[in-house]
Amino acid sequence: MLDLKWVRENPDVVRKDLKRRRMTTELLDDLLTADLEYRRLKQEVDNLRAERNRLTEQVRTLKKEGKNADAELKKAAGIPDMIKTTEETADRELNRVKYSLMRLPNILHESVPDGKDDTENKELRKWGTPKTPSFNLRTHEEIAEKMGGADFERGAKISGAGFCFIKGNLALMDIALQRFAIDSLMKKGFTLLEPPLMMRRDSYEGVTDLADFENVMYGIKDDDSYLIATSEHPIAAMHRDEVLEELPLLYAGVSPCFRREIGAHGVDTKGLFRMHQFQKVEQFVFCAPEESWEWHEKLLKNAEEIWQALGIPYSVVAVCTGDMGTVAAKKYDIEAWMPREGKYKEVVSCSNCTSYQAVRLNIKRRIGKQGALDEKKEWLHTLNSTAIATSRALRAILENNQHEDGSVEIPKVLRPYMNNMTELR
Could you confirm whether 260 is annotated as catalytic? Predict the structure, then answer.
């Protein structure tokens, strides 16, 4: 969330940003009104307590002098109830502040392109040349099933739509994609991390849009916990309520991901592309504010290098204001070429969240030596980017690398992880 002190001092900046996002200022206006009233009520409580202490001392003095203190005692007797009533009203105003503050979006970077929705995202560049096959492409589901690599029917039978069994050499390719991405990131200094697959709500609220609890995450019945939608979330919360000194911290998170939404259905959006459960390797960085924009470009470059090594044509787009979520200040997407649909589809999301998650999670960095006169603490920045979401990568490979006979060429970088096989049949 945004820092409350900063919002008080910069309301016009927030208003301008909300206008860019095509949002009303209702949340901001309610926040500022409630905050002002809360601070007034807190001052009133402080004044009442001071008055109570003054009267208590006055009663003590009068009694010591043998004088009548009934009037002072009568005044003092009503103060506790006044304090209680005022504090209860103040708490209600504070809850209004928290409600609005948790829902105000991050401040967008000035370079984010204006646009109403994802149709107005700005293409920055393309890599690779989409192939034009001389034969009719099979769907990735058909190819996967014929080679014994996926069982969608039985997956749906036991778990419902959006689940499947991935089997045999296709499962081996899934693991190979993870290993290749992990090795690529570890060579760049990232620490491999397997996070918990469940999070308590109080930690989860620090990392994501609150609407995700209803639309995206799976809650655990009779427990205040949720299955993770991405390893980004537990990694972000990992250093909750901490002050970090040695930055940057680079993590490569690997985990299953669980998501309720599947999205719109099209020619090939079922199958492996949109699933309720999939594997993903995620890049995550904690860094100093002055380094975060450089790291944003580095994370994008890391993801591009992975997709270039796989040989899959892709497009890089800057996400526009109308398609930006609550948490990110700027976001890039990488969209891989999907020949069956004849279009580029999102496979990587790369975000700079600036201090938004850090404020929610109370994570700061220390500047200067601890205990020194020049010691200072400030909010750090967090960034995240997909390295590889394997189900989407599997679809891209099955479509882009298939031959007329139904076999699929294995990308060269994956072959060492697949017993040196050269194709799936």
Answer: no
Strands 198-200, 277-287: parallel, antiparallel or unpaired by DSSP? unpaired
* Identified catalytic residue from 340, 360, 365, 392: 392
Catalytic residue among 274, 360, 365, 395: 274
* Pure H helices in 188-251: 201-204, 212-215, 232-237
Q: Is-catalytic flag, 346? A: yes
For residue 362, how many other CB atoms are within 10 A of its CB?
A: 13
CA dist 136 to 36, 58, 70, 404, Å? 66, 95, 98, 8
C-alpha pair distances (Å), 270 with each of 6, 63, 276: 44, 84, 11
User: How long a stretch of residues is the chain?
Assistant: 425
Q: Which residue in 52, 138, 259, 340 is the catalytic one?
A: 259
**Is 44 considered catalytic here?**
no
List residues bridging with 225 in a β-sheet.
200
With 0-12 / 13-18 / 19 or more C-beta atoms within 10 angstroms meaning exposed / middle / buried, residue 119 is exposed
Is 274 noted as a catalytic residue in this protein? Answer: yes
Delineate the domains of the chain, giving CATH numbers in brackets. Answer: 4-103 (1.10.287.40), 118-424 (3.30.930.10)
Per-residue pLDDT in tens (0 to 9) along the chain, 425 residues = 999 999 999 999 999 999 999 999 999 999 999 999 999 999 999 999 999 999 999 999 999 889 998 898 998 999 999 999 999 999 999 999 999 999 999 999 999 999 999 999 999 999 999 988 889 999 999 999 999 999 999 999 999 988 999 999 999 999 999 999 999 999 999 999 999 999 999 999 999 988 888 889 999 988 889 999 999 999 999 999 999 999 999 999 999 999 987 654 455 456 888 899 999 999 999 999 999 999 999 999 999 999 999 999 999 999 999 999 999 999 999 999 999 989 999 999 999 999 999 999 999 999 877 777 677 999 999 999 999 999 999 999 999 999 999 999 999 999 999 999 999 99
Q: What is the rounded distance in angstroms from the CA atom of residue 129 to the CA atom of residue 122?
A: 19
**194 catalytic, yes or no?**
no
Residue from 100, 231, 349, 355 carrying the catalytic annotation: 349
Q: What is the token pair recorded at 26? A: 């209702």
Catalytic residue among 346, 355, 391, 395: 346
- Angle (CA) 264 269 273, round 5°: 120
